[in-house]
Write a structure and sequence with these properties.
- This protein has one domain.
- Helix 2 packs across helix 3.
- The chain contains 5 helices and 8 strands, in the order βαβααββαββαββ.
- The chain is an alpha+beta fold.
């Protein structure tokens, strides 16, 4: 998975971030691993936003962990069910949406009230349209910005429409792009790389 820090690209396009985001190009080995992981996880009971919503969320977590710790394999999504996505306090919000059009960070009101993580990070998979159900190799994933719980929980709530055009049966906190903080300001040093566990540690001491 290739990495770039989009600075010159952003300035040339007049992007709001002025380079303060992180871009990843997703290759086939990465996407194959994401699909395999998504297939191994138990289904999530919630109102589906799209047919690939679970895969999109998992890709977002893997992309963010790859930036945070340098290796997406350090993330075990099966161990975070019902908890914040990363490090016990970071929730990763991921959308499959054209980067040029993505301008809101969203969170269901019941999720916000239940989990209350310290940080929220927005990842955007740059699909051709908001209804696109394909994530092909070579697609761009952008770690676009972040916020804290106090800021997000103070955002207005709206009843949005799903990708099928129907009103959703829950309210959503909506944080506009101008209130996202740049990734250059994320407290990355507060999250040291976790130690890889040796499989032998699970064995009784007399066997090791």
């Amino acid at each position: 998975m290739a990495i770039s820090h989009g600075c010159e690209k952003a300035k040339s396009k007049g992007d709001w971030y002025l380079g303060q985001f992180v871009d990843r190009i997703l290759d086939e080995p990465f996407l194959k691993s994401a699909r395999k992981r998504a297939g191994e996880q138990r289904p999530i009971t919630r109102t589906p936003g799209s047919n690939i919503g679970h895969l999109v969320g998992l890709i977002g977590e893997m992309v963010f962990v790859d930036w945070l710790w340098g290796d997406w394999r350090l993330h075990d999504p099966a161990s975070t069910h019902g908890k914040a996505d990363v490090a016990g306090c970071i929730e990763v919000k991921c959308s499959a949406y054209p980067v040029a059009e993505a301008c809101r960070m969203l969170c269901r009101d019941d999720y916000m009230e239940k989990r209350q993580p310290e940080f929220y990070v927005q990842v955007i998979i740059d699909t051709r349209s908001k209804t696109d159900e394909e994530i092909p190799p070579g697609i761009l994933a952008r770690i676009a910005g972040w916020t804290d719980h106090a800021t997000f929980s103070a955002a207005p709530k709206e009843r949005l429409e799903g990708k099928d055009g129907r009103p959703l049966d829950y309210l959503t906190y909506v944080l506009p792009k101008v209130q996202w903080r740049p990734m250059s300001a994320f407290p990355r040093s507060s999250f040291p790389v976790p130690r890889k566990r040796n499989p032998l540690e699970a064995l009784p001491s007399w066997i090791r």
